[in-house]
Amino acid sequence: MNLPVNNKKISQIMKTLTLLCGAAALAFSTTLLPTPVSAAQNLYKPFPADVMPSLSEKGAYVVGVKTIEATYPEKVKDIAGNDVERKLTLEVWYPASSAAKTATYVNETRSGQVFEIEADASRDAPIAKAESSYPVIVISHGYTGYRTLMYYLGEHLASHGYVVAAIDHTDSTNKDVNFAENPYSGFPSTLLNRSRDQVLTLNSISEHEFFRDSVDASKAGVIGYSMGGYGAVSTVGGCYAFNDQAAATFTGTQDPKVAALIKDALNTCAGGNDSGKDVLPAWKAALALAPWGGQHQLFDVESLNNIKVPVLYVAGDNDDISGYEGIKWLFENTGSEGSKLLTIKNARHNVAPHPAPKEAYGSEFDLGSYIEPAWEVQKLNAINEHFALALMNCHVKSMSDACELLNVEGSSAQEPVDGKKPEPWKGFDDRWALGLEMQGK
Predict the structure, then answer these.
(1) Could you list the residue range(s) of the whole structural domain that residue 59 is in?
(2) pTM of the predicted structure, to 2 decimals
């Protein structure tokens, strides 16, 4: 369904793009150089288990981590229609048989401040043998970001028996995009490649010599944040529905003929296919964290109605980048009965990243892509761990007890009814689920 875009709509779109890319970027007039890497830092505090949801506790497996490259088997079309080679760097977490050298993750903030994080995983440890093969989870960051932006989810799910591959989306990372001079440079590639990259990643893990004998790639889930969520909705069957004006606006194209060609290139489904029916049967569940695109209705409604894979949408009710109403629109139009919407009260867009490294505290430009005004980020991470594991255990591993943890309803606030306080949500201790709301079909 192609929707008309009027001048007011265009103004709203450009405002969203400015927010998405960081309005402060426009104020920079000089190139910011990366700083030297300081010692690795631990971003997490030792909270007692009682104040966190039950499935946020670490699993039984030691976690290994490996960095690998994934290459498209053939040249692909870029947004201009040129044939190009495309490669991705993946960070892959997995159950390990024993601990090895402790890993660190080196990344940079949007302004190029380099930092190093202490991992809870062993670099290149041997993979643990198991009675059954491990399901595969794909993690996809936003615009911009990096493959370890949600490393807490990668480590957590691996400790519970998954192989988890997180993507550095080429052209769309903090390292690739110079916000000081050209903040929108990677956005056209992001629109085109998010879902394609997610499908390639699943296939790459199933074929990789280190993982192929240990994974069951017929059982998979996808987790996407922001633009990663935009991709994940498509990966499980949502078809993009750009019209000429939207294609021109989001790619900076002036020529109407070029815009029409770009529209045709963008309007695909399920990893670059022609139809929402082309969803890989391996996908069993999707977690869409603050997914982008619904606020502009860039998805075909009929294809959303026909999605069969259960999708858990997670949204701050004050999201000013993806727009809460836009995320609700995606949820309301997603046809799968198992789909749900988890609303985080008084949250904006940063519901998924790890806590800010100390190097980000020098400016709002950097810090603003990590923190939330009204939430402790570590608590948000724990909520994500809990519901991500419940979702994947329920629908990927078919564990019925995990499904019960998804079947909470309404508000978590335990507001008294007729003078009696309700029981807390299943999986949460009394008083510690405040600020959440769950809606099902």
Answers:
(1) 7-439
(2) 0.93
